[in-house]
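mind reviewing this fold:
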Amino acid sequence: MSVLTEEQREKLRGQLLDRQAALKRRSESSSEDARPVSLDQPIGRLTRMDAMQQQQMALGQQKRIERELQQIEAALVRLERNQYGFCLRCQEPIPYGRLEIRPTATLCYDCQCELDVRTNQR
């Protein structure tokens, strides 16, 4: 059913697993920055505001990491079910070159462009 060769599938699986491992390491190291800012610390108001801003940035980063980890997990599931590499909208094969650049891609280039145009018109 897949239009990808076994070698291409294995290369993409490796990319997904490598990225997943890297994101998990980054998530663990940045989770400390996302902790709430303690109000008990004897620091100035501006320093506390800066710490709160850093915390909010770290929380945003954590959410982006979690979202990408979910995309990777979904791609790995599609890969195991032999559904990987097909556009979820038009069911046409997604070219290997696109998957090599963005292994979590769920849409072919044309469908992604249509979605982007509609999203930007809102």
Remarks:
- The first helix runs from residue 6 to 30.
- The mean pLDDT is 87.
- The radius of gyration is 20 Å.
- DSSP finds four helices and no strands in the chain.
